[in-house]
Amino acid sequence: MATPSITPTHAGSRSWLSGLNFFLADVRDGLGPFLGVLLASQGWRADDIGYVMAIGGVAGMLATTPMGAWIDASRYKRLLLASATVMLMLATAALWTAASFGVVVASQLVTGAVGALMGAGIMGITLGIVDQRDLSRQLGINEAWNHAGNVVAAALAGLAGYRWGLSAVFVLMALMACAALACLCKIHPQDINHERARGADLTCNQPAQGGGPAPSMLRILTDSRELGLLAITMLLFHLGNAAMLPLFAQSNVTRGLADPSVFTASTVIVAQLVMVPVALWAGWYASRHGYRLLIITALLALPLRGLIAGFWASPWALLPVQALDGIGAGLLGVALPGLVACILRGTGHVNAGLGAVMAIQGVGAAMSHALAGWIAHGFGYSAAFVALGIVAASGLLTYHVGIVTQPARRLGQGTGADR
Fold this sequence. Notes:
The protein is mainly alpha-helical. It has 16 helices and no strands. It has helices at 8-24, 33-41, 46-73, 77-97, 101-129, 135-164, 167-186, 194-197, 217-223, 225-241, 244-254, 260-289, 292-311, 318-343, 350-379, 381-405. Helix 2 (33-41) packs antiparallel against helix 12, helix 13 runs antiparallel to helix 14 and helix 15 (350-379) runs antiparallel to helix 16 (381-405). GO terms for molecular function: transmembrane transporter activity.
């Protein structure tokens, strides 16, 4: 019997899913690294920029678990994702028209919460369309198209920003959002299996474990030792990683080493060009050997990235710095959701569980911007990069020790996904 993931109808929806990932790449995170450049060009201090970006991270952290549970329970995933896209564009438009402190804070709050809903929505639709046996490959394809979208968007943003100024970045975001909505409309709702989308056990005729309300974030993380370990590791990784790209762009712009639009776009392009083949390879590797080694490799790249950024004060440093970023992000983009789906298979709460892990990593991301901004303001950019690299190294040590001492698990045994 043919699996639903390879029927012609599902193949069409999977093609539009690739397009959705491509166009949402420039929308989901709002202005991303361009926000720091925009505010710095208007005279904002590095620590103030870090604080307002931390607010967005906190909003995303608080929203990820309930948004994931909402996606698990909803049978209108396409509508939720479309609404989130429109809301994010409205928040960005308000930020662009008046970059006062209050407007920036409000915009970051909306961006963080809506970004959490968009991430859960894409994962839910992917799980609903693709059979579990093909999930690793599809996650790699999703990430590759997402990074390809970032490359194209960053290149266009850099060129348009150089010609017309930073306001061209917002115009490009609006166009990408419209294209994403068009792709979303082309995904057939009947192709989304909502039981599979939340990780329910489809091999039995009894109601899934996840039929009731989603458990709390604390219970999700404490019920599985590996999920809790993964959450702590991601917290430390993002504490070291989240602020590195915007801080790297700010440091070069503040020192007068590069044009703001061109340099910021270049940092994104280099990283995303590396992420595309890395994500495709990670999907292939995970389907055969599992996810753990991918996570360890991603953790190894970040301390080296911090050392290079901290001690090589040159625009050319963006090549190794962002190549390492591409390796880490490309691997984690496939490994994190895939490993969570493996751990929570059959529970009916996959998206809520992924949201719980992302909530914990959101704590690290939110603290990263504030920590980096404070260190950069008080001790300089080099000290900030070194500190972020040290934090990332502690995440590598935590995960390595944790998996070495971890007893055998029941969930996912024999699949290769947890090796």
